[in-house]
Design a protein that fits this description.
The longest helix is centred in the last third of the chain and has 20 residues. The strands form five sheets. Strands 1, 2, 9, 10, 11, 12, 21 and 22 form an eight-stranded mixed sheet that branches. Strands 13, 15, 16, 17, 18 and 19 form a six-stranded mixed sheet that branches. A three-stranded antiparallel sheet has the order 3-8-5. 27% of the residues lie in helices and 22% in strands. It is built from 13 helices and 22 strands. With 496 residues, the chain is α/β, with parallel strands linked by helices. Strand 6 and strand 7 form a beta hairpin.
């Protein structure tokens, strides 16, 4: 860096931004990262995640390549299975209703395994997702849903590891620095204008990577693009993702792309704060719903809770809850399932009611038609196909029959007290719409379908990857793959 001139400036400091910075640095560029948040809140949405990465692996040898500390005992008691490229493609196309951009999806899937090995070579540590993605059945953990690996320490651990790698390699990070405008001469991006400590500064560079998230933290943009009612959703993660990167790019003619009315939206504690709380992390989520039932204010079920593994439904059911009367639902469980609930159900800050009988529980469900609820439970219990055994590790076919909305798997009766119900609303994680990029360079494409010299993008603000729904763990994987691509492309631009 000479004066205030850098090779590459990366806007953001989450997983995608760090991957772009690492790639640019290893290709010989001086790199500056700009983080809008103060240091104690840095890391974007990545810090609020569970840290899961969806990646291709053909067996345990691929997993050992990124998790060399796996012991023989751990391997012997685990059925890791495989997650092939075909399975990843199938999941991406199925959950996006065949809308995912073919080229972007090809890079995401095809480069996922190598991206994980690259991160491991940088010093990133990973663990199997014990407990959340595998249950001990007959003495063996069987992993399911294509999701096996997480960063050690979850989302906070992921960000801390990225930070150590960046510091080790001489990447500078400026905190509390908001980028608000690209320096653009009508042809090439040559820097960025920022505001820090109340002062405006111009930072010159040879290329810029925008990787500062979507627009989910702007209630105005959510309502404008996603529709009425979305201003009522809670934000699962950082309050700083207000669409700055997208807006800066659009202002200089970038092409918008993807599902602007769609988002990753989960069932979230109804009384959670407006934005994510790092002291709680992702524990306001409530993801054991496939084993129970969901009831709305009318006392009725409204969705097939067991349509698929949690990994393939959780990111769309938040929006379904938002559309219910008064924008909430209750997840209901009986004593057969309560011991199996994920750890997030046992935190101190949780909206829970309990009852020794169903009648007692019904009386405590604030805002719910109690009589209709009891009738719904009776009808549901009678419809459960009890001859099929319950198995949480597979789509077990234990279903209901004859209901207006049948449950396809894991249909457990609600009859053994005590009972618990958890009130949930909608927690939006990130928006799906964003800018168009070249899949091989990460370069942002303008509205005339030409690349914008000097401008690259990665992470949540890249449009065209996710539509309507989302396979768990593919967001961090997308950030790693396209962050690496964008950083490599940005580094190459300094010699152009």
């Amino acid at each position: 860096m000479a004066g205030n001139q850098w090779d590459v400036v990366v806007i953001g400091a989450g997983n995608a931004a760090f991957c772009a910075a690492h790639a640019a640095r290893e290709n010989g560029s001086t790199v500056l990262m700009l983080e809008r948040a103060p240091k104690d809140l840095m890391g974007g949405n990545s810090r609020f995640t569970a840290g899961a990465f969806r990646c291709v692996y053909d067996g345990v040898d691929d997993l050992k390549a990124i998790m060399p500390d796996l012991t023989k005992e751990e391997i012997d008691r685990s059925d890791f299975g495989t997650y092939t490229s075909d399975q990843f493609y199938d999941d991406m196309f199925r959950v996006t209703q065949y809308r995912t951009d073919g080229e972007l999806c090809d890079r995401l899937v095809g480069r996922s395994r190598d991206a994980m090995r690259w991160l491991h070579s940088k010093g990133m540590k990973f663990d199997p997702i014990w407990g959340r993605q595998a249950y001990l059945i007959d003495g063996k953990f069987k992993f399911w849903g294509g999701l096996t690996v997480e960063a050690k320490g979850g989302g906070p651990g992921l960000v801390e590891q990225h930070l150590k790698i960046a510091e080790k390699n001489g990447i500078e990070i400026r905190y509390g620095t908001r980028a608000f405008e690209l320096i653009y001469d009508g042809n090439t991006v040559r820097g960025v204008k920022v505001k820090a400590d109340g002062k405006i500064e111009e930072i010159k560079c040879k290329s810029v990577v925008i990787a500062c998230g979507g627009f989910e933290s702007s209630a105005e943009m959510r309502t404008r693009y996603m529709g009425p009612g979305w201003e009522l959703a809670k934000v699962r993660g950082t309050p700083y993702n207000t669409g700055d990167g997208i807006n800066m790019a659009l202002q200089i003619g970038a092409s918008s792309f993807g599902n602007w009315s769609g988002s990753h939206a989960v069932q979230w504690d109804y009384n959670a704060p407006e934005f994510g709380d790092l002291s709680v992390g992702d524990n306001f989520q409530k993801h054991s719903y496939p084993w129970g039932i969901l009831i709305n204010a009318n006392g009725r079920r409204f969705v097939d809770e067991g349509a698929d593994f949690r990994n393939y439904t959780y990111a769309k059911y938040g929006a379904v809850v938002l559309r219910q009367p008064n924008n909430f639902a209750y997840q209901v469980f009986d004593n057969k399932i309560i011991p199996m609930l994920r750890a997030e159900y046992r935190i101190k800050r949780v909206s829970k009611v309990s009852g020794n009988t169903l009648e007692e529980l019904a009386s405590k469900l604030e805002g719910v038609d109690a009589a209709a609820f009891l009738d719904e439970i009776k009808t549901y219990n009678a419809a459960v196909k009890k001859s099929v055994p319950f198995n949480p590790n597979v789509k077990d076919g234990r279903c209901t029959e004859g209901l207006a909305i049948n449950k396809s798997n894991w249909a457990n009766t609600i009859e053994d007290g005590p009972f618990e119900a958890y009130q949930v609303g909608c927690g939006v994680s990130f928006s799906f719409g964003g800018v168009r990029i070249d899949p091989d360079s990460g370069q942002v494409i303008d509205s005339d379908m030409n690349p914008i010299p000097g401008l690259y993008a990665a992470g949540e603000l890249v449009g065209g990857i996710f539509y309507f729904n989302y396979p768990g763990g593919s967001g961090l994987m997308s950030g790693a793959v396209f962050g690496r691509i964008a950083g490599t492309g940005a580094a190459a631009a300094r010699n152009a």
